[in-house]
Specification:
The protein is an alpha/beta fold. The chain contains 8 helices and 11 strands. The protein has a single domain, classed as Rossmann fold, CATH 3.40.50.1360. Bound molecules: 2-amino-2-deoxy-6-O-phosphono-alpha-D-glucopyranose (GLP).
């Protein structure tokens, strides 16, 4: 383990090792601070994390499983505008398939913004209010976009940007087009995303960066001062951020 100026960095051999470490931390968070909701992310980085968490679940004693299932509450970062929860390309479907289904959690326990709302701005405001009503996020998990976004906070993005309806950049739509059969035109143009305001209000944050494709943006994150041009860089202002990265992602750092 080594420390950069403000971000605590924990270095792992590969993405599987990152996933095992984070799954254990998530499990302990649910056991130790069940009153604090988790903040969760989607994306390819998170696939092995949820797989490891499901394995952790199966290894746990029945009493722990019961208590985790009873008290579970999580808020996802974001959802595409225009996709129904039953649409296999939605983040709601991602969470149902990889986490809520295997753990037997209700949809009221694994919350996401309403991608089908007639008024996405109002849906964003109401999502922000439900996070606040739950006392804010306890542990927030984040992936990193190729352009430095967290959630769907695209650059440029201020540190106090709230939960809102956002326009997705060309880079992000390209990055996520795999889930849409590679058809860029099918990737929604907008999403509802928690803002840096809610993310930075979390009590603790874990940023997960794996794979060689993220090496260039991770180098920028470790070297550049905080700026709206790299939304993830605002995390440096948070007192309890842990960066989990594998060798491939750190290859240029
Ligand atoms: C996506 C999501 C983020 C995710 C990030 C990284 O667009 N909105 O929540 O963490 O970009 O995605 P991936 O893990 O697929 O690289």
């Amino acid at each position: 383990m080594s420390r950069s100026e403000e971000l605590e960095l924990i270095r792992f051999e590969n993405a599987a090792a990152v996933a095992d470490h984070l799954a254990e931390r998530l499990w302990q968070q649910r056991l130790e601070t069940p009153q604090q909701p988790l903040g969760l992310a989607t994306g390819r980085t998170m696939e092995p994390v949820y797989a490891a968490l499901v394995k952790r679940w199966h290894r746990a004693p029945e009493a722990e499983r019961r208590s985790v299932r009873r008290s579970w509450l999580s808020f996802n970062l974001d959802e595409y505008v225009g996709l129904a929860p039953g649409d296999g390309r939605s983040f709601a479907a991602f969470m149902q398939e990889r986490l809520a289904g295997p753990l037997g959690l209700k949809s009221s326990q694994v919350r996401l913004p309403d991608g089908l709302a007639a008024d996405p701005a109002a849906a964003a405001a109401s999502y922000r209010a439900s996070v606040a009503a739950a006392g804010g996020i306890g542990l927030q998990v984040l992936g990193l976009g190729l352009n430095g976004h967290v959630g769907f906070n695209e650059p440029p993005c201020a540190a106090d940007a709230p939960c809102r309806c956002v326009a997705l950049s060309a880079t992000t739509r390209e990055q996520n087009s795999g889930a849409f059969g590679g058809d860029l035109a099918a990737v929604p143009a907008r999403a509802i995303s928690l803002g840096l305001a809610e993310i930075l209000a979390a009590r603790a944050i874990v940023l997960v960066v794996t794979g060689g494709a993220k090496a260039a943006v991770l180098r920028r994150l470790l070297q550049d001062p905080p700026s709206a041009l790299l939304p993830a860089s605002w995390l440096r202002r948070h007192p309890a951020v842990t960066l989990l990265a594998d060798q491939a992602a750190l290859s240029l750092a």
